[in-house]
Every structure is written in C-alpha cells, then in structure tokens.
Amino acid sequence: RSSDLHGSGRKDNIFIDASYHTFGQELNKIIRSWQPSILPDGSIFSRVEEDYLWRIKQLGAHSPVALLYTLFYFNTKYFGLKTVDQHLRLSFATVLRKLKNNPDRK
After folding, report:
1. Is pLDDT above 60 for 43?
2. Coil vs helix vs strand at 89
C-alpha cells in the first residue's frame, strides 16, 4: 500500500535513513553511467509516476525534507537542473517570471 512507509513512522525518504546507506552507495554505483530514455516529445521516460510520489508523501509540504525534495524535483522537471552545482547556483535573483503583454492593462 502506498501509505505504508509514511504510516509506519519511517522517515519521509528511505534514502536518508542510515539503515539504507550501503544500499544507496551500491545504487549510486549502478546508476552513475545510466542515461534516461527520451520520449519523442522530449520528456524523460520514467516508471515512477509523479502522482504516486505525492500519494506516498515523497513529495509535498508535510515536512521540511519532503518540501526540499519537492523543490529538487520541480527544479529538475521545469528548469532542467541535473547536477548538484546547478541546484546550488539557483537563487530567487536568477529566476525571472515572464509576463504576457496585456493591451488592456496600464
């Protein structure tokens, strides 16, 4: 069930749980050279659906850690940030909002 991890009192994300440290190291070795499949529309193929991440509370604002992962997720999804350095360089001063010109507006 999707709520088992959160409902059992476990940490928000198993990858920050010390019990999974060795697993995380081995997973990093495996995926170091991995390249995602790019779909014809330019999006990245994933077996994990975003709505599932929201349902199991891996994304959201219910805790500081989940909120931080949500920011990383959206920065990667919408701004194309892929490296730690790119995320570190991001600041509100470097984010611009484009406004459409509205001829009725003065």
Report:
1. yes
2. helix
- Is 94 in contact with 86 (CB distance < 8 Å)? no
Q: Which long-range contacts (CB under 8 A, 24 or more apart) does 9-15 make?
A: 11/65, 12/57, 12/58, 12/62, 12/63, 12/65, 12/66, 12/69, 13/58, 13/65, 13/66, 13/69
pTM: 0.56
- CA–CA gap between residue 20 and residue 12 (Å, rounded): 13
Task: Give exposure, 63-86, as e/b (b: 16+ Cβ within 10 Å).
Answer: eeebeebbeeeebeeeeebeeeee
In tens, the pLDDT along 5-14 reads 555 665 566 6
